[in-house]
Amino acid sequence: MTGTATQQDVFQLRADLTALQTATQRARADADALSTQLDRRLRELQAESERQTTALGRRLDSLTTTLTALTARLDELGTRVETLTRDLRSAAPPKPAPSTAVPARPAPAPPTASLPPTPAPGGAPPPTSRPATDSLRPQDLYQAAYIDFSKGSYALAIDGFREFLRRFPEHALADNAQYWIGEAHLSLARGYANAGDSERATQSLEQAVQELKKVIANYPRGDKAPAALYKEALALLELGQPALAKARLEYLVENFPQAAETPLARERLASLRER
User: Fold this and answer.
1) What is the pLDDT along the chain (275 residues), one digit of tens a residue?
2) Are 246 and 269 in contact (CB under 8 A)?
3) Distance between CA atoms of 170 and 253, rounded to whole angstroms?
4) Domain spans, the chain
5) Which positions ≥6 away from 78 have C-beta within 8 Å?
6) What is the spatial distance between Cα 265 and Cα 247, in angstroms, rounded to a whole number?
7) Nearest 10 degrees: Cα torsion 231, 233, 237, 240
8) Which residues contact 204 (CB under 8 A, 6 or more apart)?
9) Cα(50)–Cα(172) distance, rounded to whole angstroms?
10) What is the dihedral of CA 250, 185, 78, 81, to 10 degrees?
11) Cα(35)–Cα(29) distance, rounded to whole angstroms?
12) Are 173 and 219 in contact (CB under 8 A)?
């Protein structure tokens, strides 16, 4: 009886062991399948996150371009309004002089063709009809440079804005002129990049960073300071300097919380922190 019971026990143990091995294999297969599904789901989520990040980045770039265009248009309109206001003031008729008891004298006869023009007092030569270059108004120089920028003549625009700054460094539009110099270099960099000239594109980006820094250095509370900080950060990102770009974006958010560029800066900072 003991030998028979022991043999039955062995058979039972073998059956239990076989069942346990089968259950273990089934559990391992289920675990492998679940792991595969989990890996696939994680890859799908990662790909979806990357697609969303790319889409947001493109939308952000589009909004930045639109904002730049609107800002440029606003500057142009402001300059035109100021120019028209000055023209209207200069074209206003003079007030009539009060009448006096002095009788009117007949107008002198015009000089004959053989007589030279009467010299001005002190022996100075008579004024010429063409104004000197130095007599150009600040708005004329600024508007000419901006027209060059809007036409895509960025090198001419840079020269024009620099001439404006050289002559009128304290003008109300000086910070705008310095900002558009930086924007012109950014536009040149994009053109070089599209043409496959990476070396000149990098040089233009580096020059844009230097010019945009001048906006903050020379006009720290000017209207263009927030835009200059944001564009400088974008240029630094293209140059592969995310740490410096992050610092400029943080400075923008902290010092210009109400600026139009601040929400864009926050989004860029969030994407940088996720990397």
Assistant:
1) 455 567 777 777 778 788 888 888 888 888 888 888 887 888 888 777 667 766 666 666 656 656 665 666 666 666 665 555 555 445 444 444 444 433 444 443 433 333 333 333 333 333 333 344 456 789 999 999 999 999 999 999 999 999 999 999 999 999 999 999 999 999 999 999 999 999 999 999 999 999 999 999 999 999 999 999 999 999 999 999 999 999 999 999 999 999 999 999 999 999 988 77
2) yes
3) 27
4) 56-88+137-274
5) none
6) 11
7) 120
8) 185, 186, 188, 189, 192
9) 44
10) 170
11) 10
12) no
Q: Which fold has domain 56-88+137-274?
A: 1.25.40
Query: Could you tell me how many residues make up the chain?
Result: 275
**Residue 196 to residue 193: CA distance in whole angstroms:** 5
Query: Six-digit token pair at 220?
Result: 């720290």
* Contact in structure between 254 and 224 (CB atoms under 8 Å): no
Q: Which two tokens stand for residue 268?
A: 């860029």
- What is the secondary structure of the chain as a DSSP string? -HHHHHHHHHHHHHHHHHHHHHHHHHHHHHHHHHHHHHHHHHHHHHHHHHHHHHHHHHHHHHHHHHHHHHHHHHHHHHHHHHHHHHHHHHHSPPPPPPP-SSPPPPPPPPPPTTSPPPPPGGGPPPPPSSPPGGG--HHHHHHHHHHHHHTT-HHHHHHHHHHHHHH-TTSTTHHHHHHHHHHHHHHHHHHHHHTT-HHHHHHHHHHHHHHHHHHHHH-TTSTTHHHHHHHHHHHHHHTT-HHHHHHHHHHHHHH-TTSTTHHHHHHHHHHHHH-
